[in-house]
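Repro:
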Amino acid sequence: MKESERNKKRIIIIIVYLLLFFLAGLLFYYWLSPAPTCFDGKKNQRETEVDCGGPCAACQEKPQTKDLVVREKHFVHGGQNKFDVIAKVFNPNNRYGAAVFSYVFVLKGGQGNVLAEKSGRGFILPAETKYIIESNLEANETPVSAEFSITNERWQEFEGYETLRLNVYNKRYDLISGGIGYGEAYGLLRNESVFDFNKVKINVVLRDSSGNPLAANTNEMNTVNAGEQRNFRLVWPFGFPGEVQSVEMEAEADVYDTLNFIKRYFPAQKF
């Protein structure tokens, strides 16, 4: 027998053995593999999505929501080579709130160059309009514009939603005539809801006579009980251009965080 014929036979034998091993391994795999179920975290057995549709339960419909609307975006003076940024966001959905979303502020120069940026995460309730404020963005030149974008909203449906009654009264702003600082804002927070909150955030925006933002600030208050009222004060250590004609203040609490509130079973105190 010629050597070439022997080599052909060897190759054929090797191929046959490889095919037998492959088939045996495949049968062994299917024998040991669990049967597909509606809880295996895989899209199989004619499912339309992972573990739903087809032979499994119907897939939950994705919420039909409208995009969040950015009504304002500004930058204001925040000290030497520093700037604060403000965005005013509206949720046009009456039944859905965003438990979390990502956002980015970008300050740009005259040539469209990026001077500074800052990212964060926020939340918004159904039909709510709220401020998002970030402080101390550093830039070596005065920006020309501020950009603000929102991504990755995680929507949550509310049933029988009632607006949180966290109200601010006695709002005012004064220049500091003596001592440390340039200006200060005061307010009275009243928790007129039936919830105790571990944390409440206060957002403050100062505007001139034309409604243009001049400055912004934030403050956090801890352990605000149902029916409680509490004074607060925010200080601007630096001067800023313009004359303050109006003071906007809002209070917010993250109701998506179950650790942030405890429901009370008696009516809030009436004022």
